[in-house]
Amino acid sequence: MSDIKNKILVLICDGMGDRLTNGYTPLEKAYKPNLDFLASQGVLGIMDPIAPGIKPGSDTSHLAILGYDPYKYYTGRGPFEAIGIGMEVKGGDIAFRCNFATSTPELIIKDRRAGRISEGTSLLTETINNLEIDNIKIMFKESVEHRAALVLRGEGLSPFISDTDPHLEDSSVLEAKPLDNSLESLKTANIINKFTRLSYQLLSKHPVNKVRQQKGENPANIILVRGAGLVPYLPSFEEKYHLQGAFIAEVGLIKGIARLLSMHAPDFTFATGSYDTDMKQMILTSLNLLEKYPIVFVNIKTCDLPSHDRNFEMKVRAIERIDEALAPLKDFKGTLAITADHSSPISVGDHSADPVPLLILGDVRKDKVNSFSERDAAQGGLNRIKGVDLMPIILDLAGYSEKFGA
Ligand SMILES: [Zn+2]
């Protein structure tokens, strides 16, 4: 087993970066003695998860932080939606975002969200999952409410086909059409059109929908697809870095990305309530995993909800709870990076392109910054980097890089 000095821990605090509210960011307002102590021992900077001015999704930013250029590997929301709800996708699959919708027998859409159906979609799913059309395997999985994802697997498929979702009510279901002249696109469009009609046949007579109609609710009797995307062929984390990596994440999307890279990403649950995570347990688990793996990533989602709710006080409290959980890291002897996947300002209530703070500890050129916040980090010795720069920097600090040249 390698020395603790060669161990790397990366903590990604989801949406932690912010702008000013009444003159301060939540990080500046929070009482965070542990983060500030760690800052005093390390080197800081700010990081554009993708690039300056580019508003990152959590998927694209995690790809970048893991060192996978999202402009090369991100192929649209379909594949990542499927990954996020736990479908086992493979490079070369074609994935779609889907809706359960309400259709007439003439395939006119009456309700694109099937009355925002909240129950019974797993039973409906059973009848349309694991189908085969023209030798192509069809996998379907329900998500929350009317949402779902569809994955096609087999030879000769293409992501270049149009949506069947008309995006308007009282409109006909659209025919999927090839968007280029390839046989693959024509074949994929045909399969989707067959699947669409089949979904109506199978779902319209399903007992769940009979009950819905008796109750005066809109039946979920057709599947609309949109956002076709090719599941990318990604080199595994181990192929790329010759290191086995582990990822602790509770969010399906992040866990799914780690699994797509063949990282060790078990179904950890640290939830102690609907929005609470036992972060102390999360940190202890990450330290345990470092006994076995040279590099461990952790996604801490605590700041996400207050950011979307635009609740400044709650975000401050979330940061303080993260800080409490970091106490055991004060004598961590490996390379430690603490950052965020994107900013989520209270003033915006959503992701923004503002760079995030970054702190690295280990055998680093310590700078003069003694506090962990967006504006303090901007004074640090790392200056301003991009998300894809993080892996090379920490791998080098931990002693894994090779000389470029003689
Ligand atoms: Zn995020």
From TrEMBL:
Keywords, ordered alphabetically: Glycolysis, Isomerase
Free-text function comment from the UniProt entry: Catalyzes the interconversion of 2-phosphoglycerate and 3-phosphoglycerate.
Source organism, top-level taxon: Bacteria
Lineage: Bacteria, Bacillati, Candidatus Lithacetigenota, Candidatus Psychracetigena
Native organism: Psychracetigena formicireducens
Pathway: Carbohydrate degradation
Keyword Isomerase: yes
UniProt KW Ribonucleoprotein keyword: no
Name of the molecule in the record: Metalloenzyme domain-containing protein
Name of a matching Pfam family: PhosphMutase
Family: Belongs to the BPG-independent phosphoglycerate mutase family. A-PGAM subfamily.
GO annotation (BP), single: glycolytic process
Sample GO molecular function, one term: phosphoglycerate mutase activity
Residue ranges constituting the Metalloenzyme domain according to the UniProt record: 7-396
PANTHER family referenced in this protein's UniProt entry, alphabetically: COFACTOR-INDEPENDENT PHOSPHOGLYCERATE MUTASE (PTHR31209), METALLOENZYME DOMAIN-CONTAINING PROTEIN (PTHR31209:SF0)
InterPro entries reported in the protein's UniProt record: Alkaline_phosphatase_core_sf (IPR017850), ApgAM_prokaryotes (IPR023665), Metalloenzyme (IPR006124), Pglycerate_mutase_ApgM (IPR004456)
Reactions accelerated catalytically: (2R)-2-phosphoglycerate = (2R)-3-phosphoglycerate
